[in-house]
Amino acid sequence: MTGGQGGALEGIRVVDLTRALAGPYCTLMLADHGADVVKVEMPGTGDETREWAPPSIKGVSAYYLAINRNKRSITCDLKHPDGKRVLERLIERADVVVENFSPGVLGRLGFADDRLRSINRRAVVCHLSGFGQDGPGRAWAAYDLVVQGMGGVMSLTGPPGGDPVMVGVPQADMVAGMFAAFAIVAALEARHRTAEGQIIDATMIGGQVALLSRQAARYFADGTVPKPEGNVHASIVPYQTFRAADGFVNICCANNALFERLCRAIDLEDLLDDGRFADNASRVKHREALVPLIAARVHAMTKGDVVRKLREANVPVGPINDLAEVFNDPVVRHLGLIAEVDHPVAGRVRAPGIPVRLSASRGWRGLIAERDIRPRRRPLWLVAALTVLSYGIYVPLWFGFSWAELRRDTADETMFPAAHGASIFIPGYGTWQAYRHFALIGQLLTRVGSTLTIDPSTAALATTVWWVTWLHYSNEPLFVVLNLIELLAGTGVVVFGQRALNVYWAARPGPPADERVLQSDWFALGMAAAFFIFLTATNVIAPTN
Questions:
Q1: How many whole angstroms separate alpha carbon 485 and alpha carbon 117?
Q2: What is the pTM of this model?
Q3: Pairing of strands 56-57, 60-61
Q4: Hey, where are the domains in the chain?
Q5: What per-residue confidence (pLDDT) applies to 525?
Q6: For the chain, percent helix, then strand, then coil, each to nearest 5?
């Protein structure tokens, strides 16, 4: 890949067997950076998050849209032999396979790790679960709230002395997805050296334990079990939330220089002469004395004034924003953290953008929120109409009608017209019958001295092309082209054949041609026109799914 031409993961094929949040968030990160992600869903219902509404956008779950952009989608019954073969073919060409079934389910479907490795040794296989593919938690069900609690994060969140509080976003799912995506990219890099993929066991509980960071360090250092601290820092003062006149702000002063700037910015210089606040250790010790003084001054100002003054003084400060304020923040807009994508049903959809920018890799295709690679199926009645108008009547009926007239002038031909017309359906034999048909017309033209020549081989080939390209079940571009080839081939056979017959009947001696024979010109063209109209109409109105 050349820099700037696409995402950093362009050319990486991902088979996505995930649903809910942790797995789809992992594959979302890969898709946003250019990977070609094919999401495999259950027939009928699909990913369960399709039903997680309200809210919805034109009937499509907003939850589902948020985590499934830039992916293609197919439905596949993995319990059916045909579905298993489809998955095998996907895996054969894949660089990455991601799944978050309950541990063991993929193996019971016939795709255990050794089988996956036998299909494609270069594929990186990522299992993402709540508590691991083996061990005591293997069979436990896991949702975000459950894992947030078990991983210790909820025991640290909330006001001092209060009940445990869940983080306001499903971070256990999202963090697990992030770590899984990181592990996948690491395994892809390792593949450059080993030429083989590997198996990844990513867990939600693992992501939560990794987040414990300084709190875990505190526990390992002296055995202290940390408790909820609210919006304060146990080791730094001031480092917390303060209420302004019209909202809340966060102020963080991790050293003496920052504390001095804070005091000067909000007119509390007298605190700088107070020995109780001379350094951070002293400020922590006298937290109860210092914090009310700062809080009183901040509360007398608006949120905007506090932020402006402290930023001018280069003190770390920020407002607590609701989502309306977040997505109107000039920094958020400048960094492109709001992306707009097109969805075939929901229309224009906004979503959080990629939080990082790569200098030489574009990332974020931003074209569609969901791409469905299933062919657009026509309704059954339209399929039946096309079958009758084209394959059932259009060409074989002409062969039958014209054969009936040819028998009048060739007594040696005994095959019934209906049988002759039906024979066009038979592979191989139909080609030979088409050759016979046009060879006979050529003989009759020679008998009356006509200069028009007939090449029966070309006519037989055109009839075969018409037969082979009878594909009416999709309006994907390839099949539209095949339909048009069929239309041209069939129409060419019928119109040229009828023209040759008309030349013969006009030149032959004896009674004039039967009127209904000449009317078959209009029959041929009428069938071609009807087929074209139905073909065009069904391409327009065929449903997406």
A1: 42
A2: 0.66
A3: antiparallel
A4: 13-228, 239-320, 326-356, 380-541
A5: 57
A6: 50, 10, 35
